[in-house]
Amino acid sequence: MKRSSRDPVDAWLDERTRSGPFPRGSGLPEAAFRGAAAGVLGGAVMMMTMKAGARALLPEGEDREPPPKKLVETLARSSGVELSDVQATAAGMGVHLGYSALWGAVYGAVQSRLHPPDALHGLLLGGLMYATSFPSFGLLPRLGVLPPPTQQPLEKAALPLGAHLVFGVATSTAFRALS
Questions:
Q1: Does position 98 have pLDDT exceeding 80, yes or no?
Q2: What is the per-residue DSSP string for 65-120?
Q3: Residues 13-54: pLDDT tens digits?
Q4: Is the dihedral of CA 64, 66, 69, 73 positive or negative?
Q5: Contact in structure between 109 and 39 (CB atoms under 8 Å)
Q6: What's 28-41 look like in SS3?
């Protein structure tokens, strides 16, 4: 009598790849690509959220320039490059959508392999993206683009956090729709 020599780990992996957003046969590159596309969609929703939130929450005369545009302007100045307002806006949008695509690709790769709950994973994605950029240890304060949230009025500090959480949920929703 021949015994089955099926490895339990292989059986578990087979089951994980058969379920979830990608059926058996689709791989990590496809998941990352779909995640990147979802990240671009989530990034666009985030830009609209930031713009609407700035209009609704920030007083008239308060600086409402989006952080990606400020980042581009800061880097251009430090390199001795002058950008028009249109160039800085376009470059800021490009940087933001590219960064969103990167985070979306990471989301897609993790989601396709581990299958965490969409909403929770989306909120974690948005929170992680925020944490790498805005707190005092984040990229934007370290580059001198923005002060840390603790040195800003509450509504100005809360706006990016809320927008990043919206990004995470929008990205997870788009990823599910693209699957």
A1: yes
A2: --HHHHHHHHHHHHTT----HHHHHHHHHHHHHHHHHHHHHHHHHHHHHH---HHH
A3: 565 555 554 454 468 999 999 999 999 999 999 999 999 999
A4: positive
A5: no
A6: HHHHHHHHHHHHHH
Q: For residue 109, which of 94, 93, 125, 95 has the smallest C-alpha distance?
A: 125
Torsion from C-alpha of 168, 172, 175, 177, nearest 10 degrees: -130
In a domain, 22, yes or no: no
pLDDT above 80: residue 109: yes
Are 100 and 43 in contact, with CB atoms under 8 Å apart?
Answer: yes
The torsion region of residue 75 among left (phi > 0), alpha (psi -120 to 50) and beta comes to: alpha
Domain residues for 169? 27-58+98-178
> What tokens appear for 150 in the block?
């603790």
**CA atoms of 40 and 98, how far apart (whole Å):** 7
Q: Which two tokens stand for residue 179?
A: 């699957």
Q: Which pTM was predicted? A: 0.82
Number of domains in the chain: 1
Bin 25: left if φ > 0, else alpha if -120 < ψ < 50, else beta: left
